[in-house]
Amino acid sequence: LLSIFDLIMARGRLAYKMNAYCPVLNQEGITELFHARHPLLGERAVPIDIELGKNFDILVITGPNTGGKTVVLKTIGLLSLMAMSGLFIPAREKSQIAMFDRICVDIGDEQSIEQSLSTFSSHMKNVVEILNEVTSRSLVLFDELGAGTDPAEGAALGQAILENLSQRHVHAVVTTHQSELKTFAYQNPRVENACVEFDRETLRPTYQVTIGIPGQSNALAIVATLGMSQKILDRAQELLPQHEVEIGEMLNRVKAKQQEYEKKLVFLERQTAELQETQEKIRQDKEKLEQERQNIIHKARLEAQAYLHEIREQADEAVDEIRRAVKKNTQNPKWHEIEKSRQKLKKIEIQPEWQVVQDVHHALQVGDSVQLLDLGQRGEVVEVFPEKKEARVQIGVMYFNVAMNRLQVLEPVKPKAERSLMTDYLKKVQTISPEIDIRGENADDGIFLLEKYINDALLAGLESIRIIHGKGTGALRAAIRAYLKGMNCIKSFRDGTIEEGGFGVTVAYLK
Q1: What tens digit of pLDDT does each residue of 376-420 get?
Q2: How many CB atoms lie within 10 A of CB 360?
Q3: What is the separation, in whole angstroms, between the first and last Cα of the chain?
Q4: What mean pLDDT is predicted for residues 148-160?
Q5: Average pLDDT over residues 304-314
Q6: Residues 344, 347, 353, 359: is their CA dihedral positive or negative?
Q7: What are the phi and psi torsion angles at 137 (to 5°)?
Q8: 3-state class (DSSP) for residue 210
Q9: I need a labelling partner for 96 at 20 to 30 A (CA). Which of 182, 224, 405, 500 fits?
Q10: Is 291 helix (H, G, I), strand (E, B) or coil?
């Protein structure tokens, strides 16, 4: 148990020391490393991004000598072994590691005089053993495939090996200087090129890895930094095959375009993020304004309803006072009490309605009442900006700068001439009859006439009315009685007596 605990603590200390993360393990053969670092290089390691098994199974890495190709190879192998051993890996979070059944490697020079093995032979001996062992769930790492022999034969042998691995769906990462292998990677969908970058201005490798583009050996540029004669370098440049020179120039242009594209991509991503942030802020502001608009409308409706309810109560109270005054003494009403109620009705203030004033934007002034066309809200102009054709409008406690063409100016409707409610009432008291004759009318017309008559009778303060509808078929009588049952102002009703007209008359008592 102590040894197990010690191993767990050692893993934790190592992960903390390397700033490592737990990888995502999978059985699909997908390796995806973000900012991966060789575990033994520490702070000197240049982070690289590598993928394998998702869009391609074989990765062919090319580039200059001392450019970091072998380091990339070892980084992939070591991080895979670390993850399969239960260790965190020096890479960023969300990195993926495939669970391979075996990792087969051929790296370095193992020539042996004792065993009569040259550099090429020692490499091929390892390659043969690897090809006999690997499966579709294996990872193969080949360093300098096809090197150490005739370039043409080495390239042909390297291509045949990669074809065999591809046909068996083996995952592999290969470093090489063979141009034919770069071409093979271009021509096969499950094989991809990659390069370790070289800065031609400083003539030094950057150790960055770019997937999708093959690299160049840059042998002449590297030799120049070692003190080689310029005369020899110029001659070597002349001896290079023309197609190699053209391919090198093409690759340089492609890399320059890719770097320009990546810079623009970074700028575009930053602009996109800022735009999304701005859009989100606009959306939130819009929701906030809409909520405030709804609150203003709701508050205005509540205030209007409360005001209307208050006005109705005052009006009902005044009318009731008049009725009570008349009922006390219909023959000789107390005019001072009636006049007092009339004055009370006159004092009920109704807020003026508003009507739109057409084509008056040129006359917009501070204090004008306006309506916002798009919001349907009413407000007051607090400031005018003629040069901008704008006005500052107050709506409740909020202020808005609004274009004049979005405003409609409102003005109070002129009050209608005051009606003499008392005159109409006294005229109604003096002329109304205690009975209504609707014989010969159909049900609808008869009820229409009866409704108007009952309203007048209520206003005049009558306590009972006689409705003469006749006997006939009884349809009009039935319709009138059904109507009276639904009227809140009817206390009760009955058939008329013989002296009043019998079944041809209905007597109703008002509340």
Answers
A1: 678 888 888 888 888 888 876 677 788 888 888 876 544 444 445
A2: 14
A3: 99
A4: 85
A5: 73
A6: positive
A7: -110, 20
A8: strand
A9: 182
A10: helix
Distance of CA 320 to the CA centre of its chain: 60
CA distance 249 to 221: 14
Which tops the pLDDT comparison, 78 or 363? 78
| pTM for this entry | 0.50
CB 448 within 8 A of CB 476: no
Share of the chain above pLDDT 90, in %: 24
Residue 423 tokens read as 């005159």
Q: Give the sign of the dihedral formed by CA 89, CA 95, CA 98, CA 99.
A: positive
Token readout for 277 is 């942030």
pLDDT, residue 412, reads 57
| Contact assessment for residue 117 and residue 110, using Cβ atoms and an 8 Å cutoff | yes
Pairing of strands 171-175, 58-62: parallel
- CB of 416 within 8 A of CB of 399? no
Q: How many CB atoms lie within 10 A of CB 394?
A: 13
Strand order, beta sheet including 369-372: 354-357, 407-412, 369-372, 378-385, 390-395, 398-403
- For residues 5 and 351, the model is more confident at 5
Query: Phi and psi (nearest 5°) for 44?
Result: -75, -15
The single residue listed with the structure tokens 């008592």 is 509
Residues 6+ apart with CB under 8 A from 200: 218, 221, 252
